[in-house]
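WARN retry 2 of 3 for item q-0093 after timeout on previous attempt; input resubmitted unchanged.
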Amino acid sequence: MKAFILAGLLAAASPAAALSQALEPVSQSNIVIGESFILDAPSLGDEREINVWLPPFYDELEEPLNVVYLVDGAQDQDFVHIAGLAQLGALSWQYEPFILVGVQTKNRLLELTRPAADPRYQAQFEDQGGWEDFLAFLTETVIPFVENRYETSERRAVIGESLAGLFVTDTFLNAPASFTDYIAVSPSLWWDEQAAGQAAATLLSAHDDAERSLYLTMADEGGTMQAGLDHLLEALENHAPEGLDWIYVDRSQTETHSTIFHPAALDAFRTLFTLPPYEYGEAPWYLVEGGEPPAEVDAPDQP
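OK item q-0093 returned
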């Protein structure tokens, strides 16, 4: 018993215990990085979480902002880390500031794919083919909500990875006027025996010449992922409309499917929303080898 009492006294008197008692916070609050809404989704027969990040100086801006719509944009999906990139751009002026809108998905295979024509895919994947309904939710509900609530420009982008990247690609090919800028990261172009890539030439030939941009990138997935992309790239080489500015970044030697999204999104924002290099002016003396501080100016005589 004495040993237990002694141990307790020693623990209470230890520096760690005293330090923990001294480190009580002055105050505590939650970190807020945006606004979250629940919207009715009539085309989906459901409700969905919509998350919005605004630049910290939003209320001071005189010009409307571009908007980036993030598919798989719930708080427990990709919203938080892509919001970090939006914050980085706003702080560093590496690229134009924008409003980020994260859009929740639930049944991703159902909501992000076009209906499969291949019988094997029909038999294997019962819940699939809801691309049109999810696109209707974006264009008929989410975009009007955002544009009525915030000061937005006419430029709006959509970004997604994997199945969301497939959704981005299919939207670009089948409904190109939905957005002005498309960012597809490791798109799941294996879907339906590479149907999107196979149909790309025909679909691109029907596009108008409006100015749009398309950013494509793929990691080391290989197989039918890369084969489907190769069909798309060939179609772009031969049938890209006049107004389309497109780029493909091969990340097969540097990224995997699980590592590509964040660095690719950063590069896409730098590429599509580029700003001129920030002018820092003349380098201060301490950044010049052997530099010397300027001579002190004599203070004026005191009266």
